[in-house]
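Lab notebook: predicted structure, single chain.

Context: the supervisor wants predicted structures on file for every construct in the current expression panel, including those that have not yet been purified. This is the next one on the list. No modifications to the sequence; it matches the entry in the shared construct table.
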Amino acid sequence: IGTVLIKQGHPLAQVPFLNTLQNRSKLPLLCVADAEWGLGMRMEKTLSFPKNLTLGAIQNEALLFELGKMLGEQCKLVGIHLNFAPVVDVNNHPHHPIIGMRSFGDDEDAVSRKGALVIRGMQEAGILACAKHFPGHGGVEIDSHHGLPTLSSSRIALKPFKEALTAGVRSLMSGHLFVPKLDGEHPASLSYPMMTT
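Prediction complete. Output recorded below exactly as produced.
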């Protein structure tokens, strides 16, 4: 209650829709979107940036802060307050079905730095960032939208999430992953010890 998730649509329809909802609500609504590479991920006729794997090759990492600011400015234009981005999963499994291009790469230190810069830029623009998919979705070979992947201890890459917290990220999205080393009973998305400690 109090949150609106933006999915596919055109800004000329989405923006009046959000404005109408905000005007009718007694409390301000939190509007969220999954715009990892820009509004073009969800909205027609809007700007898309390169995906993270391409951005991971950027040598001048200060550009990633600027990218974060531009993502934030795009979100502000259409009334989004929280962007479910960036993906800070390390792409450390060669057969991963859904992370691949969404990751900054396979180097944990580089992913940590680059994710933190995007977070800082987005939040500098006044948009809440969300680091995902805790504790790291890059080391599995099952799509968690269709099954429950198990993340082995050798593929847990927590550093990008620690760096995101140091950068001041305002939210973390849990991955729907079974991580026996951290909780032998529940997936991360339902794990009290993983989500609270």
